[in-house]
């Protein structure tokens, strides 16, 4: 798909395989943009075709250039704070960063300024980009690895949908206690809050559906390195599920792991996804940048 940026405008050439499309069908059916966003773009006159404002129901042809006013200046929703970040992928629509352990994904209170989102805001500011920092998913405070942020509302909406449709694939590495009897398997136990502990989650019949696929990578005797993929993204899902089958993460004291390292041994090692606007397949590999044995 041929696309390019002109200032605050994003241009896209209608490809040959988009038959009988209109602005309306591109937004509502192809991108499945939220109604509120579609309404806002219509009211603001944010879309033109070949430089002209046309009816949103007028048929378009391959080769027409649809021009979207996507890159509007927006106030930072978190204060920019200087901090080094490891950028795995970046373009005008999104950024993927390798999060270090020991920081939150985003502020939990208005006065927090030392989260990954604050550092990403500073990165945008240093490049002259005025855009909000919109996370697509999160990682725990002590979990490291690949995490994605959108740069404008349309990208955010499409990426949120791709996550819901499980088309954003995330692969984790975890070091767990003990030897797993099965070389691979799926844990499909619902997860809910632990009413006896504010921050804990637990397997509960009344919880939300959760599916965790694991594969043994290396047997290390008293511990095992496993590769994990998620079909759902429940809070603490990997930590809860691995503890539930008797193999808590090394260092994860909240769920029964022994504190032989400084944090739980969990790292988001890879993320792959179709680009929200160009549909190009993107894969990012995140190195584990601290020494936890992964």
What would a concise description of this structure say?
Helix content is 16%, strand content 29%. By secondary structure, the chain is an alpha+beta fold. Strands 5, 6, 7, 8, 9, 10, 13, 14, 15 and 16 form a 10-stranded mixed sheet that branches. The protein has a 4-stranded antiparallel sheet with strand order 1-2-4-3, with no helix packed on it. Strands 11-12 form a two-stranded antiparallel sheet.
Task: Name the descriptors.
294 residues; alpha+beta; Structural Genomics Hypothetical 15.5 Kd Protein In mrcA-pckA Intergenic Region, Chain A; Pseudouridine synthase; 3 domains; ten-stranded mixed β-sheet; four-stranded antiparallel β-sheet; 5 helices; 16% helix
Name the shape in a single word.
elongated
Number of helices: 5
Strand element count? 16
Strand content: 25-35%
Element pattern in H and E: EEHHEEEEHEEHEEEEEEHEE
Oligomer: single chain
Structural class, from helix and strand content? alpha+beta
* Number of individual domains: 3
Average pLDDT rating = 95
Alpha carbon gyration radius: 22 Å
Top-tier CATH class of the largest domain: Alpha Beta
Main sheet properties: 10 strands, mixed
- Helix fraction, binned, reads 10-25%
List the helices and strands and how they pair.
Elements: E1 3-6, E2 9-13, H1 23-30, H2 35-43, E3 47-49, E4 65-69, E5 86-90, E6 94-99, H3 116-126, E7 134-135, E8 144-150, H4 153-164, E9 169-177, E10 184-187, E11 191-193, E12 201-203, E13 212-219, E14 223-230, H5 237-244, E15 266-274, E16 281-285
Parallel strand pairs: 8-15
Antiparallel strand pairs: 1-2, 2-4, 3-4, 5-6, 6-8, 7-8, 9-14, 9-15, 10-13, 11-12, 13-14, 15-16
């Amino acid at each position: 798909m041929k696309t390019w940026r002109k200032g605050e405008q994003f241009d896209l050439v209608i490809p040959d395989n988009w038959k009988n499309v209109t602005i309306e069908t591109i937004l509502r059916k192809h991108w499945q943009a939220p109604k509120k966003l579609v309404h806002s773009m219509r009211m603001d006159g944010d879309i033109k075709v070949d430089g002209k404002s046309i009816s949103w129901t007028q048929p378009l042809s391959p080769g027409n250039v649809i021009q979207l006013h996507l890159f509007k200046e927006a106030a930072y929703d978190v204060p920019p704070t200087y901090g080094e970040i490891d950028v795995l992928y970046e373009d005008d629509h999104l950024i993927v960063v390798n999060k270090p352990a020991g920081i939150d994904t985003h502020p939990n209170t208005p006065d927090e300024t030392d989260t990954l989102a604050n550092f990403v805001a500073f990165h945008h500011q240093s490049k002259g980009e005025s855009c909000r920092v919109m996370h697509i998913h999160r990682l725990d405070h002590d979990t490291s690895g690949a995490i994605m942020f959108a740069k404008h509302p349309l990208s955010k909406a499409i990426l949120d949908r791709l996550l819901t449709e499980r088309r954003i694939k995330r692969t984790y590495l975890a070091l767990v206690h003990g030897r797993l009897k099965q070389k691979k398997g799926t844990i499909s136990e619902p997860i809910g809050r632990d009413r006896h502990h504010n921050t804990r989650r637990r397997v509960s019949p009344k919880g939300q559906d959760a599916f965790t696929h694991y594969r043994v990578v290396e047997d290390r005797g008293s511990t095992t390195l496993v590769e994990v993929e998620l079909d759902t993204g429940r809070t603490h899902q990997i930590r809860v599920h691995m503890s539930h089958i008797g193999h808590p993460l090394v260092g994860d004291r909240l769920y029964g792991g022994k504190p032989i390292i400084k944090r739980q041994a969990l790292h988001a090692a890879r993320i792959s996804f179709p680009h929200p606007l160009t549909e190009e397949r993107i894969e990012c590999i995140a190195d584990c940048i601290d020494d936890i044995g992964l």
